[in-house]
Amino acid sequence: MAAIDRVDPPRGLSIAEGTLRQLxxxxxxxxxxxxxxxxxxxxxxxxxxxxxGVLLGxxxxxxxxxxxxxxxxxxxxxxxxxxxxxxxxxxxxxxxPVMGGIKWHRSYHAQLATPLGVRDVVNAHLAFVxxxxxxxxxVFLLVLAPFGVFASWWGPVLAWFVxxxxxxxxxxxxxGISARMRSEEGFGLIFRLGVIPxxxxxxxxFPIANLGPVLEVVAWFTPLWHGVDLTRxxxxxxxxxxxxxxxxxxxxxxxGFGWLWAIRxxxxxxxx
Amino acid sequence: xxxxxxxxxxxxxFEAVKGIDVDVRKGEAFGFLGPNGAGKSSTMRMIASVxxxxxxxxxxxxMDPATEGPAIRSRLGVCPQEDTxxxxxxxxxNLYVYGRxxxxxxxxxxxxxxxxxxxxxxxDKRKAKVDDLSGGMKRxxxxxxxxxxxxxxxxxxxxxxxxxxxxxxxxWDQLFRLKQAGVTLVIxxxxxxxxxxxxxxxxxxxxxxxxxxxxxxxxxxxxxxREVAELRFGxxxxxxxxxxxxxxxxxxxxLEILPDRILVYSADGEEVIAKVHERGLEPxxxxxxxxxxxxxxxxxxxxxxxx
Lengths: 272, 307
Known about the structure:
The complex is a heterodimer of chains A (about 270) and B (about 300).
Chain A: H1 15-20, H2 23-56, H3 73-94, H4 96-104, H5 107-112, H6 118-144, H7 154-180, H8 185-201, H9 213-220, H10 223-236, H11 241-270
Helix pairs in contact in A: 2-3, 2-6, 3-6, 3-7, 3-10, 6-7, 6-11, 7-10, 7-11, 10-11
Chain B: E1 2-11, E2 14-24, E3 29-33, H1 40-47, E4 55-60, H2 65-73, E5 76-79, H3 91-101, H4 106-119, H5 135-146, E6 153-157, H6 165-180, E7 184-189, H7 192-198, E8 201-206, E9 209-214, H8 216-223, E10 227-232, H9 241-249, E11 254-257, E12 262-266, H10 269-278, E13 285-290, H11 293-301
């Protein structure tokens, strides 16, 4: 064989270089999964909005004082739906796919035999999840724009960034859990005891004030509520700046913690 | 290329590798032989710089895997025991995507992928899905993939396990050509014929330590005899006939008494057979063969099954 091509820096690649080297792999994943993704991204929001917003919402009196400033149930529920959608995509892409990389198709093993490090592998996977969340939420918001549910044009644009942070808060934490899990049976618990209760009780479908004083306090501590409330403020143009900053800080902190937790989890699992 | 001193690997209380010394020189084909659980794969994972060393010193290409892992891995080719190919991608894309992990530019990696497909005789499968390949083809693709960065050192963990004889011989041929081209090979295997075919030097590992080291020929000379005479005396109803007969031939060489035959290790197998007949013994079948690495292996690691 001829002389070697290159020798990478001893300590590892930069974050950008480490992630970019996996672009072709993840692009191949996008190419083979986008069809299903596009259909569900377009159709799911329409189903939600017709079922929950229009049909179910027809029975709900749109009293702005009880709907956190929304003038109709449709306006109220749309930000909640899109925030829950962001969480569901993030969790879906960091449960079975992470275990697959470790146990089934073993793509992480292949990647870690190269100069790529655990951090690079985590980053590239999370970048793919960010792409999935960003594109799905963009479609969701665009499909709903003609229904007149947004108070301004910039509100949903800012909300889109918030949804991305929300998605990454869930993606990083769940990645860390999946990396530590030995069997896929635990995913059932994540969905049944995590995703579904959060979707139902974090203010997506009704104001958390309706939960009663105790459960309302519990809801404050759920990450989805921070995402739902901030998304709703932006979509309805009812921003309460100090509270909005608290929401953003909680989500960003969770994403930051989750990132380290995910890297440590995969490192412990793959480099034993 | 590789230097290990007192290399150890523990998983909790279990010590998989118990202080081994190994040196692999440039251009040689070096083998790790051993039964299941001997510590071969743990050693390979440390050499591949994916598994931290518990204690001892390890240098790969002059570098320390603890602090220079990415630099080491950029110059290694790894063919793992279990395939890690992407079943959803086609054959060409598997090479392409993997080459990109090494930061090789797109045009070069495309060109190289086609060369490697030619080398492993998979050019006509270029667009096939990995799922549709046979076991031998997948293994050849994995080897092609491990060469995409033109490595200095190629690590092959059980490269032919599960392949049919034709596929094994094709693979051996390709590995031999790589060796001729100057690539240093490190192979783990429990196939003795494979080790004899491919390895210039090898170590036999057992229970985490090195039981013997040398070239296949040296190991046979040191731990076995030139020839082996195998004597079969049929099966009797009561008692083990071989145990009874053994007493009459024990001066002819080192004996190994098995349920179905007696092995006599001796420099001259024909002479053993002649003496057996002189003593009035009538084996129903005899076989004289050269000692193989398998004899060495079984002597050093025992005949007990390891699961």
